[in-house]
Amino acid sequence: MFAVQPGDFADKTARYADLLVQLDALVSDDRDGLANLANASALLVQLLPDLNWVGFYLVRDGALRLGPFQGRVACVHIAFGQGVCGTAVAERRTVVVPDVRAFAGHIACDAASRAEIVVPLLAGDRLLGVLDLDSPQLGRFDDADAHGLEQVARLLASRSDWSRLVS
Questions:
Q1: Given its phi and psi angles, is residue 68 left (phi above 0), alpha (psi -120 to 50 degrees) or beta?
Q2: Is 91 inside any structural domain?
Q3: Contact indicator for 122, 157 with CB cutoff of 8 Å
């Protein structure tokens, strides 16, 4: 059985380094993409403070479709270029939004969300989906979060079988 080890880390670099060690151990035994994404969303919500939604949207039929997540019910379908998730896909880059109310076209699934970060999931040039985190705290995400979550996305992209998840 895998046991999450919540650390008491004052700095984000240490927090993400520990998170990556735990995620690596969590996904090392099985390449099942669905299981890995479900466990990754649970791990992230357990180890990172001040979050109200953590999950994945996967590329299916030319759009983003809801994947495993932790939080309130969410939008099922997001078109490329729409909202923060669609922007991250269209631009193939991490998007950090300190205040979602100031982001034109933000898609509000939970009115309590005030900040958001979205990281593309890429396998080489192939777009698989996005990792999406929301927080009720303004300015919750920064460059350290972007760097740490990009490492999470790379690990998941390389260690998971995506054949049944994306099209």
A1: beta
A2: yes
A3: yes
